[in-house]
Design brief:
Three copies of one chain form a homotrimer. Chain A is built from 13 helices and 19 strands. By secondary structure, the first copy, chain A, is of the alpha/beta class. Chain A folds into three domains: about 250 residues, Aminopeptidase (3-Layer(aba) Sandwich); about 90 residues, Domain of unknown function DUF2172 (Glucose Oxidase, domain 1, 3-Layer(bba) Sandwich); about 80 residues, Arc Repressor Mutant, subunit A (Orthogonal Bundle), CATH 1.10.10. At the B-C interface, helix 6 of B face helix 11 of C.
């Protein structure tokens, strides 16, 4: 089915196709994005009407935009939405006026420290208009001139759009993968998450068998996770064994994750084990460094076992939330590497089990053909992992715990455990 | 009321006034001291008769002393009680005899390693007489001469004197502040504790409102705390949430505290949080380093949540238990600095609460005017402390715990928590 | 009785006497060894018939050997069992054939990296024959020649032999000492364990009184412990408070121990406390480094509180499992030093108790003659250990725990505790 050598190229193509779309919390950009992802996996797309409550929040009006620009009296375009959708502050209300330089400046956002970058700015919950511009271009504006500011946008009673996908497994226990689809033309902090999660869902759906059920969620950040939680809270709390919020996974830099507040959930243990087991340099942040949907998923009353998985965490890399976070920052190669980490998380969860030694004392592996029958220096070492697994299989520890103790990745331990269960030496504790 | 700029000067004056008094376990020196402190705060003074049992101990006879000296046959005074009350061993029985040089030497205490210091020596529980002298002066004594030893003291069926003060608050939960009043003319290891605690009591009594009840105890060390515990054990065990034994808090050196045996009581957490939060260099000792009334308050069957707060801990500074621990070692400025630490302990306890997020997910601060409505680089940081407080307010953690996690002093978090409770975003867990 | 100055010499003599015996899992070598040890302590020797099941294992056929050699066509002996019993692979089946050089080589075990050492090799559970030879001698063999291979051994329906000894004490709680008697002529990894444990048993039996019951087990490794456990599992699980597997305790190198899987059992605490308290350099291994009978005693369903005590742990020293592990590697002096460690383990367990302060507050030691009645600098220090013991005697901590906290060996604390119990200041928590 899925040719893994082909994945980086296909990820790159998908990124190129999704990049120009003007996404926001709501609107046709999100719908178009989910439509394209839905070509790869069978997403369920949902519309939630403006005004729908979600805990302390309310679904906002739907925003759509067709065009926007600023031009001088002589019609010279200072900036144009068609050049880069970051030029317009997200959720700007419509306007068509001639304003003074001073008024324009009050509505112009720039980054003095990055003069060639357009900043990404939004105003979701207060009605405003605004433009974003390279600082280097602001200097050229004539303070004595007037400017036509034009935004052809709409804020209407519409709906918020999100998608989910449940891939069933043998158990009702669920693994959650969440990512967001609400940023306009940016690469690492937008496209990498949905692309990696889409390919992950495709890979999971193609597995011959699944122990767990997998739930994928593609939502606008914050309001989207609040809406999703408000509709599925009881189910998620009852069934989720591990969750991964995936964000900023396309750049070349080191891996990282934001642990849950307690830092000890199953998701924390899995991601940590995988990053160590794959010998990947990585940073373990604190929940104090949170900033994405883990803020909702790990809020006290929700309290799902979830971590956020990143390469360069949002807010820590220079291109973050600017026009420089473009397709040059990410690559299919690196998104495939991040995908590989998440596949190992899945393998770890799929293969994990609590195992128990059937016998008092060590089993006799030799008579089962599992152990060399001549004792010599070195021969004992050859089956060390198998022996260590048996030595720690006490009916309480799972393979992840044993793997941490004995220094063997859980996904390598899983087939050994299955062999020993088949040989009647170990049993699954829950059997 | 209390002008804090004036405190160091008033503390210095109080120290000068209290210094010459000859205090001991019992006797008029203690009464006089408590009388002077009682001019600042309304102390309840208690008399406990000689022979009263206190657990394994018994209140000793009352000791008073009027005069004492050693002189040569020719009437030359070798030492005189009137010059320094440390010259007489505490609880010396009366004597008026002419003795040989050898006999005198058997009753003379000196410090060879500190030749110009008079050591502080007592014999509370075995009837003896003795004198204390600078080692440098002993060399000049004539071994062939005889000496008149004169002590005009009395050991009588009297009483032990102590004082306490309870300042009521909204809750029956009590915070205990204990210090001792049984050392004669010494500065750091005597006057600093009662002076700081007296000013602290005055400050607490003047607070417009108190969440907790505050109990101050001024006692002779060891027998006093045993007597106090024997009279109030059940009450103290039932109501004390944190206790602070205050000793040696007047010198210029670093802060320190002796933790409780477990090291994890509320008092341990509070003092540690305050010293860290105020960024004060300090030493955390072990309960193995105990030596003051924490020995009784933290004994296994008593087991109050109490720490001992010091600058230079008793036994660790060169002047300790000698005539060099005089008014030069302490200053009003430094006693006021120690007072400030204890005020912050009170502020921490007063403001502390277990708080809970009212909502699933994050509350929407923007619609309550608590959060900037435009997202820009940096604006999220501006309300970081508020957001972190909400993120960790899970109905189990108190502000002290949250403050430790998020790196904000609990006394700074308390007003933020109150603002959020008023805004309906948090609730107090106990409400 | 036992003159401790004489012990190293007597240990050396015993080692010299035991060294030449050809021991194995079964057979007369084990019987002869136990017979000699039984001259020092009254061992109970047990025979377990071939075919007897022990959990997942079965007692193998009994192996005995009278002679073996390899010689050339011309009758020149290449190797002879009579020179060194390591020349024959343990459990070799009988053979008397002339074989080619190539066939001989298939049955010849050497150690290229230690050319002058005969390796120790066995084949307990697959019927084979084999010889072991110095690598340096293999070079001289003529590839064109044929060789007579002769082994006069027998594999018969016989029995497995082991011994035990129970030395009763006041309590049914047991301390287990186990060691193995199944290796042929080797010193550290065979004789040191049985010799040290035999002298330890002799010393314990001679104690005027014992708080605990002591169980000594002399078994062939692995199958012996499995057999022993299969016969005594319920009893051992119910009564064993601490166990020590003793192996490789005769060389001059540092001490070490292999902790239990959890690392927190009473045996772990005792051995760690003793090695620290005696200020002996030592290595704490991991249960991952296991390799002796702790593999059975600490297997999940058995789970006895047991550690393995060693000098140089098996597998870590150059002479291990070769003919170089001879009497030069061990000495009576060093075995006596290891014995001393185990005696201190016994002293620790014997003297240990949970103690409780009888009084609220500190007891008044002075009136009981336990405390100097004059307070002076230094006098408090003199009874520090006594005071610290009282301060931490809370009815939950045992002397081992208190000793760790206050930095005093538990075996030094025990007499102090007894003095305080006699003085009515402490009581035993279980009294």
């Amino acid at each position: 089915m899925q040719d893994s050598h082909d994945i980086p190229r296909r990820m790159d193509e998908l990124a190129t196709r999704l990049f120009p779309i003007c996404r926001s919390l709501t609107g046709d950009g999100v719908r178009k994005t989910l439509g394209i992802l839905g070509e790869l996996v069978p997403l369920d797309v949902h519309e939630v009407p403006t005004g729908t409550p979600a805990f302390d929040w309310t679904v906002p009006r739907e925003w759509n935009i067709r065009d926007a620009y600023v031009e001088t009296e002589t019609g010279k375009r200072i900036l144009s939405f068609k050049d880069n959708n970051l030029h317009v502050m997200g959720y700007s209300c419509p306007i068509d006026e001639v304003v003074s330089y001073d008024t324009l400046m009050e509505h112009l956002h720039t980054l003095e420290e990055m003069p060639d970058a357009i900043p990404y700015v939004t105003s979701y919950y207060a009605e405003r208009w605004g433009f974003c511009l390279e600082y280097s271009k602001v200097q050229a504006l004539d303070p004595a001139a007037t400017y036509r500011v034009y935004i052809d946008s709409s804020l209407t009673e519409g709906s918020l759009t999100y998608a989910d996908l449940v891939i069933p497994g043998n158990s009702a226990e669920e693994v959650l993968f969440s990512t967001y689809v609400c940023h306009p033309s940016m690469g690492n902090n937008e496209l990498s998450g949905p692309i990696v999660n889409t390919f992950l869902a495709q890979w999971i759906a193609a597995l011959p068998e699944r122990e767990k059920t997998y739930r994928f969620v593609f939502i606008p950040e914050t309001i989207g996770s609040l809406v999703y939680l408000s509709r599925h809270l009881d189910h998620l709390k009852a069934h989720t064994v591990a969750g991964f919020n995936v964000s900023c996974v396309g750049d070349r830099r080191d891996y990282s994750f934001i642990p849950s507040p307690a830092g000890t959930t199953y998701a924390d243990r899995v991601i940590s084990h995988v990053l160590k087991g794959l010998k990947l340099d990585h940073t373990k942040y604190s929940f104090l460094d949170r900033g994405s949907d883990e803020r909702q998923y790990c809020s006290p009353k929700v309290n799902l076992p979830l971590v956020t998985f990143c390469r360069s965490r949002f807010g820590t890399y220079p291109e973050y939330h600017t026009s420089l976070d473009n397709l040059d920052v990410i690559s299919g190669e690196e998104m495939a590497n991040s995908l590989n980490v998440l596949k190992h998380c899945v393998r770890t969860v799929e293969g994990n089990a609590v195992v128990d030694n059937v016998f008092c004392g060590e089993p006799q592996l030799g008579k089962r053909g599992l152990y060399p029958s001549t004792s010599k220096l070195g021969s004992y070492e050859a089956v060390r992992a198998m022996n260590d697994l048996i030595a720690y299989a006490d009916g309480n520890r799972d393979l992840l715990t044993i793997g941490e103790i004995i220094g063997v990745p859980a996904w390598e331990l899983a087939p050994v455990a299955r062999q020993l269960v088949d040989a009647g030496v170990l049993c699954r504790a829950s059997d």
